[in-house]
Design goal:
The longest helix has 23 residues, at 214-236. This protein has helices spanning 72-92, 115-130, 137-152, 158-165, 199-212, 214-236, 240-256, 262-273, 296-308, and strands at 4-15, 26-41, 47-51, 56-61, 64-69, 99-105, 168-172, 176-179, 188-192, 278-281, 289-293, 312-316, 324-325. The chain has nine helices and 13 strands. The strands form two sheets. Strands 1, 2, 3, 4, 5, 6, 7, 8 and 13 form a nine-stranded mixed β-sheet that branches. The protein has a four-stranded antiparallel β-sheet with strand order 10-11-9-12. It binds (3R)-3-hydroxy-3-methyl-5-(phosphonooxy)pentanoic acid (PMV).
Length: 328
């Protein structure tokens, strides 16, 4: 039997990370880096998960992990969400089959680009398609969000939303998301510090700061909200300059709540010196990735300067395509 491949995009949070967990709005953009999952039925009841590019492989039978490649801790960290997604889909449709799932990703892992959500969304969609069910995107979203909760504790839901629906979204926890029409190109350089970090730990850090200094956090949250509202206007006016300025202010807020680190500051300063219109950390911070917005003619300069500073840069374009089944 032929397998089914599905894919889902990575993302960058342009504005509002962390504050979004406290009900403030955020803006998130799907980028042209995708995670791919290929699902195939097996003759037995085993679940075999493998990723050649992550160098990880495991066979799971009756809940027991038999590691075939990679370190136990890493296999569990990266593959527990995949296992959970497959199990939820099988349970939902009353199936009890064994599967081979192969993950391929061009998304840096644990770097703030939504790797987990992209992988889980792709695995969920591929498993559903393999069972010959037409899963509505809302169902893929529900399962991806449930799985994310088991990984991150109190996630806002921004990751599953963007991986599944793509485009540029204005996201808020209580009202959900609204697609933003973005006519202009958003030329971004993403710089990976190479420092892996945990979203759960970073979110917890902010929770502690919030509990210690509630009266200081309040105006910071209001400022974060204003930044997002101004950014929505700047998108309407196609004003990259304003967006860049707002990114710098947003980064200042993130720095003040303790989620930046030396590796991010280094790349952000470098990008600003190389002529970026604005630069900030993206996602949970504490390592991971930064983003720099630059006019097209300055992109290469910003890219080269991030590389010289020891970061791993790549140029990202926005994509409208959320989760999708790939042609066979
Ligand atoms: O670094 P990431 O891709 O896991 O993004 C985390 C974004 C937060 O706002 C910090 C958490 C969330 O669930 O929204």
């Amino acid at each position: 039997m032929m397998g089914v491949t599905a894919s889902a995009p990575a993302k960058v949070i342009l504005f509002g990370e962390h504050f979004v967990v406290y009900g403030e709005p955020a803006i998130v953009l799907a980028i042209d880096k995708r995670a791919y999952a290929k699902a195939e039925k097996r003759e037995d009841k085993k679940l075999c998960l493998r990723s050649a590019n992550l160098k990880l492989a495991v066979g799971i039978e009756n809940g027991n992990f038999k590691i075939e490649e990679g370190d136990v801790k890493e296999v569990k960290m990266k593959f527990e969400p995949v296992k959970a997604a497959v199990e939820k889909v099988l349970e939902l449709y009353g199936e009890n089959v064994g599967l081979d799932v192969e993950i391929k990703s061009t998304v840096p892992v644990a770097a703030g680009l939504g790797f987990t959500a992209a992988v889980v969304a792709a695995v969920t969609a591929a498993t559903g398609a393999l069972l010959n069910v037409r899963m509505p995107k809302e169902e893929v979203f529900r399962i991806t969000y449930e799985v994310e909760k088991t990984v991150h504790g109190t996630p806002s839901g921004i990751h599953p939303a963007i991986s599944i629906f793509g485009g540029t979204l204005l996201f808020q926890m209580d009202t959900g998301f609204k697609p933003l029409e973005v006519k202009t190109d958003i030329p971004l350089v993403i710089g990976d510090t190479g420092v892996e970090r945990s979203t759960r730990v970073q979110v917890e850090k902010v929770r502690e700061v919030t509990e210690r200094y509630p009266h200081i956090m309040e105006p910071l949250k209001r400022a974060a909200r204003e930044i997002v509202l101004k950014a929505v206007e700047a998108f309407k006016e196609n004003s990259l300059e304003t967006l860049g300025e707002l990114m710098n202010i947003n980064h200042g807020l993130l720095y003040s709540i303790g989620v930046s680190d030396e590796s991010l500051e280094w790349l952000i300063n470098t990008a600003q010196k190389a002529g970026a219109l604005g630069a900030k950390l993206t996602g949970a911070g504490g390592g991971g990735c930064m983003i720099a917005l630059a006019k097209t003619e300055r992109l290469e300069n910003v890219f080269n300067s991030i590389q010289r500073a020891g970061g791993r840069p790549f140029i990202a374009r926005k994509t409208d395509e959320g989760v999708r089944i790939e042609p066979t």
